[in-house]
Design goal:
It contains 20 helices and no strands. The chain has 480 residues and is mostly helical.
Length: 480
């Protein structure tokens, strides 16, 4: 590594890093691994329940505990990466995630597995804001759009393909112990990511003083995120959870006041509120939150219906959802490039396609009912929705971070992804409640059609945000 890359402040190098595309590949591989673990474990839950004698509550925490700790550390890890070096945090996150995967794969009890998943989520939350921060640091101009296009592909495909890979692993390794390999498969990927990141990602030497890391803001934000997320990921709905959610919102409000006060006193806040005045950032965060409400709900409700309502195996259910993954793979890179010239219009077009695809899927599921050919009935609508999704995620990431200063990229990416995690939790809670209400009356098709209508409504909120931003951006500037 040359002095220009290691001694120059992050993002200020005159020449582009010659290893930037290799570094991106390493980052995206680790990011894919962590996002895949959001959904891949779902198909293994029956096997886990049988071998570990896990209760319904334990299974819920195997899934939701990961999401909870993932969202908890995103912003703090992003800010720490900005201050102390993104490679350092990236490697630390991969080490934590890989060791936790080993612990999960060897778990002798349900309690052990739940704890391992909580630690896995911490590792994933440390890794992901470093990825978007490194893209900001390493790429400029049109190349940045291409890099975010690859990131968007990674996010979309990892979410959609999780059930497929989980089904394949269970089919190859066997139903009894196959669930362990859902976690153990991360080990070689994690070790390789650590070795390659040390080779291709330059370290940072001009680290900020530890006193600038805002520990009070970190505690307030972490407690607020947990307070909001916990009721959403919990299987129970009672007054205690309502109080906890309100307390979380109150803590987030206190966090904003603290950050404003710290900034006014000349301190270094964890999340500079000036970020939300950066062109395109606030809108992109809000749109991302709304989109992930509907986006994640699609896979949740369809995976459940295809297995419980139609009788598909985990592998068959996963394969039925692959058209979405294929569609988003095709258009994500295209969207990352097109957004540099077309702007928010790319996102709006993508949202229209996703909504059209899900409406068509809902209509066809209602007409087809539960039959062995259901997967073929929804293949074309899912492909259409996937093509649209590729035009939403990566272009929205690009628009969010396009004008963000490089030294704030980690924190900005952490806030963006925290919104996505909150959206995912809200979407699963809302869509899942409607699905179970319908299927609980013995009408699985009613449940899935109601669930998909809910995803359409949530996606429509994202579309309204995008259209409003597009119209606002096209208004002529005031005279004088």
């Amino acid at each position: 590594m040359t002095d220009a890359r290691t001694s120059t402040p992050a993002g200020a190098a005159a020449e582009p890093d010659p290893n930037r595309w290799k570094a991106l590949s390493v980052c995206l591989t680790a990011g894919f691994m962590t996002l895949l673990d959001v959904s891949i474990v779902n198909v293994a839950l029956p096997s886990i329940a049988e071998e570990l004698d896990a209760s319904a509550s334990a299974l819920q925490w195997v899934v939701s505990g990961y999401a909870l700790t993932f969202g908890l550390v995103l912003v703090g890890a992003g800010r720490l990466g900005d201050a102390r070096g993104r490679r350092t945090l990236f490697v630390a996150g991969v080490v934590v995630f890989t060791l936790a995967s080993l612990a999960a794969g060897l778990a002798p009890s349900a309690a052990w597995l739940v704890v391992a998943r909580l630690v896995q989520g911490i590792g994933g939350g440390i890794i992901n804001p470093q990825v978007s921060g490194l893209i900001q640091q390493l790429f400029r101009g049109a190349e940045r759009g291409r890099a975010f296009g690859r990131l968007g592909t990674t996010i979309g495909v990892s979410t959609a393909i999780g059930p497929v890979l989980g089904g394949v692993i269970l089919a190859v390794a066997g139903a009894d112990h196959g669930w362990r390999w859902v976690f153990l498969v991360n080990l070689p990927v994690g070790v390789l990511a650590i070795l390659l990141s040390l080779r291709y990602i330059a370290p940072r030497h001009d680290k900020e003083p530890a006193r600038d890391l805002d520990p009070v803001g970190a505690v307030l934000l972490g407690a607020g995120v947990v307070g909001v997320l916990w009721p959403l990921v919990s299987e129970r709905r009672d007054p205690v959870h309502a109080v906890l959610g309100l307390a979380g919102l109150l803590l987030l409000a206190v966090f904003v006041l603290w950050e404003r006060r710290l900034d006014a006193r000349g301190g270094t806040p964890m999340v500079p509120l000036s970020l939300f005045r950066v062109p395109g950032y606030a809108t992109a965060v809000l749109l991302g939150l709304a989109y992930f409400c509907g986006f994640t709900g699609i896979f949740f409700v369809l995976t459940l219906y295809l297995q419980d309502g139609v009788g598909y195996s985990p592998l068959q259910a996963g394969l039925a959802l692959t058209p979405f993954a294929l569609g988003s793979t095709v258009t994500a890179t295209i969207g990352g490039r097109a957004v540099s010239t077309r702007g928010r219009a790319v996102v709006v077009l993508g949202l229209v396609l996703v909504i059209a695809g899900m409406l068509l899927a809902q209509l066809l599921l209602g007409a087809a009912g539960a039959r062995s050919t259901t997967g073929w009935w929804i293949a074309a609508p899912l492909l259409l929705a996937g093509l649209g999704s590729g035009l939403v995620i990566s272009p929205n990431q690009t628009l969010a971070l396009e004008h963000v200063p490089v030294h704030q990229a980690g924190a900005a990416g952490g806030v963006l992804q925290t919104g996505q995690r909150l959206g995912s939790a809200v979407g699963i809670a809302v869509v899942g409640a409607l699905y179970f209400a319908g299927s609980g009356r013995g009408a699985g098709t009613v449940g899935v059609t109601h669930g998909l209508l809910a995803t359409v409504a949530l996606l429509a909120v994202a579309l309204a945000i995008g259209v409003a931003d597009l119209v606002r951006g096209r208004r002529p500037a005031p005279a004088g």
